[in-house]
Structure formats: structure tokens, C-alpha cells
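Recap from last week: sequence in, structure out.
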Amino acid sequence: MISSAPGTQGYVTADQENVYKLKMKAIPTAALLDPSGEVGHLYDAKTTPQMVVINPQGTIIYDGAIDDHPTSDSSDIPQSKNYLELALSEATAGKPVGCARSPHRCVAALCVVRVPVLARGDWATKDYSS
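Predicted C-alpha cells:
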């Protein structure tokens, strides 16, 4: 989800996001544009990146950072504790998520993940701001 308002850093249109996903070879099932911040407020989003995992019953089972390194330096990845990967592994194995919350980082984007993920699609970005 992208919660940047028009005229602010990070704002993109649906077409711009689709071009960016292709350029980055990203394969998300969807990208939600939330320039009004309405959905972000529903999840109390305050940090970037904030990851939220929702089980099939609609319950938030994880809310927090991707990992324990507050950096974008890819060399930190091998020694990082990946909170999100652990939460997804536990959830898809039918286990309770051991660490349901983790520390957050800087300000305001949100990724919402529903589990279990059964298939990936090549979905276009939709703008749900209206």
C-alpha cells in the first residue's frame, strides 16, 4: 500500500506504480494506492515499512517491521532476524505467531498480507482513493 498524498514524496498514480513494478520485476498480488491515508489510519500505520499480516478470519496476527535492522543496506540482510518471514512461516504452518508485534521504523507506508497465500496473480494496481 502506498499512502502518499498528491504532491508529497512517494506519491504515484496507478500507471506509475505499474511501470515501477515491472521495472523492479516485483510480483505483488496487488498494490493499493491510499493517497487519503484512509486505509493506513484503519491499521494505525505510523512507520515505513510497516507490515501487517491478516489471517483468513480477518484477525491481525502480525504488525511490525520486516526485520531487526533499521537500514536499507542490503549487506545487513544475511545477519538480520526477519520478523515477517517468521510470522508468515508460522501462520502458514498453522502455528500461532510467536512475535505478533515488532519495533517499527520511520514514517508511513503499510503492507497488508493475507495468509495463506495460495497463488500469485499478475494484478494491476488499483486506486481505491475515491
